[in-house]
Specification:
Layout lengths: L7 H29 L3 H11 L7 H34 L7 H12 L2 H21 L2 H27 L4 H9 L10 H12 L5 H7 L7 H29 L11 H9 L5 H34 L4 H22 L6 E7 L2 E7 L7 H28 L2 H8 L4 H28 L1
Antiparallel strand pairs: 1-2
Length: 430
């Protein structure tokens, strides 16, 4: 997205969206979850009735959980890429390769529907297994080791980027302000802020439901947001110098990591081992995120029905897997299928072989990250700020400073909702 939407201008808008919109929404989701200690839809229903409002507020959470499943459908495909690359790295396929060779290799991977389907299936099975068995405690213990290790790997990559001779080019690309595409990047920046913080679908609400009463919501959320943003910027500083050193196009899209980083690992000492470790860690990170996308709907259906958790998980995972085949085929046999095509002023919902428009993956990505995530966040932050009531919010946040609580409530009631609406309006006006 930085490559497509003007470098530093996009980064600046992204940071503003994190601070003024993402953090208030994250606070809202967490306190709703901890207050109700139920699945998102049931949480909004119970708290709305408790405050004397309509139970129909739960529809917003239900829509968010559907959005999470749609995101999981394509997230699983990309997670499958990381599993594939663990094997490829281990075999030494990238040792001494050129940037063109790595690009051609990745092109060959995504052009093979059977190969993508295999890894997509395996990734979805791994995610469903954890949810069905409830072995979250074991995963949590492993993540306490794996995620800091992934951070260390990013620092090592940053060190390599400093040796490429293109580090300052990457810095200028990320932070030089180019206003030409600022308006184009507003909605994508907000959507990516929601995607990065995992807000707008109810996943954070699930974490809030398990959060101890004595823990500080505000301190935890601000810490998470700061660390998430820092790692995002660190990843960019590590990635873009490698991209420029390899002569790659920084706006190539979601496969950029699978081209530039194998090139880097293939041309440094111990790169084969570092590459295997890196993609193992990426796969585990993706695995944990996939679990948080699946869990809200599983928890909701288990609460509302007598169906066993295993069967609920199976059918939901199968549905996501089936929809995910559309993303798999978007890179190969359905590559010519385009939706929302503008053909010289004539609009077509679908057209085969069109020069513009979105493929199936693009449609799902656009609908979820740029429309449904912000709308879900709007629902949750308005609910926490206006529906729950001032005292309920104060009780959950447990802020000692009246001024800090007033500022937080102001952000949730006014700044975040108005910010979301303004960004949508700016996109429509454009």
């Amino acid at each position: 997205m930085v490559g497509v939407y003007g470098g530093g201008a996009f980064v600046l808008v992204f940071l503003a969206c994190i601070a003024l919109i993402g953090v208030p929404v994250m606070l809202a989701e967490t306190l709703i979850g901890r207050r109700a200690r139920q699945s998102p839809a049931n949480a909004l229903k119970v708290l709305a009735l408790e405050a004397g409002h309509s139970a129909k507020w739960s529809w917003g959470a239900f829509a968010g959980m559907i959005t999470a499943l749609l995101i999981l459908s394509f997230y699983s495909v990309v997670g499958g890429w990381s599993l594939d690359y663990i094997i490829d790295m281990g075999r030494g396929d990238f040792q001494g390769v050129t940037a063109d060779q790595v690009g051609a290799y990745f092109g060959g991977v995504i052009a093979d529907p059977w190969r993508l389907t295999l890894w997509h299936t395996l990734f979805m099975l791994l995610s469903a297994f954890v949810i069905a068995k409830g072995v979250v405690a074991g995963l949590e213990r492993s993540l306490r080791i794996m995620m800091p290790l992934l951070f260390v790997m990013l620092v090592i990559l940053l060190g390599y980027s400093l040796t490429t001779g293109h580090f300052m080019e990457g810095v200028h690309f990320m932070f030089d302000f180019n206003p030409d595409k600022l308006l184009d990047g507003l909605l994508p920046a907000m959507g990516h802020a929601f995607f990065s913080l995992s807000v707008g679908v109810g996943s954070i609400m699930i974490y809030g439901a398990y959060m101890p009463k004595h823990s500080s919501i505000s301190g935890t959320i601000v810490g998470v947001a700061l660390l998430d943003t820092f790692v995002s910027l660190l990843a960019g500083l590590a990635l873009f110098p490698i991209v420029f050193a390899a002569g790659l196009n920084p706006s190539e899209g979601p496969g950029l990591m699978f081209v530039s980083l194998p090139f880097a690992f293939g041309n440094v000492a111990f790169g084969q081992l570092m590459g295997v470790v890196f993609f193992v860690l990426v796969a585990i990170a993706a695995w944990s995120s996939a679990i948080s996308l699946l869990e809200p709907m599983v928890a909701y259906l288990v609460e509302r029905t007598n169906i066993r958790r295993g069967w609920v998980t199976f059918w939901l995972a199968f549905s996501c897997w089936f929809v995910g085949l559309g993303t798999v085929f978007s890179f190969n046999i359905w590559k010519q299928a385009k939706f929302f095509v503008n053909d010289g002023g004539a609009f077509h919902l679908y057209q085969w072989g069109a020069q513009n428009g979105l493929d199936f993956f693009g449609v799902i990505d656009f609908f979820t990250s740029r429309i449904m995530l912000p709308l879900g966040g709007l629902c949750f932050v308005v609910f926490a700020g206006w529906v729950m009531g001032r005292e309920a919010v104060r009780d959950e946040l447990s802020m000692r400073s009246p001024a800090l609580f007033a500022l937080t409530l102001f952000l949730m009631r006014y700044v975040a909702p108005i910010g979301i609406l303004v960004v949508f309006a700016a996109q429509l006006w454009k």
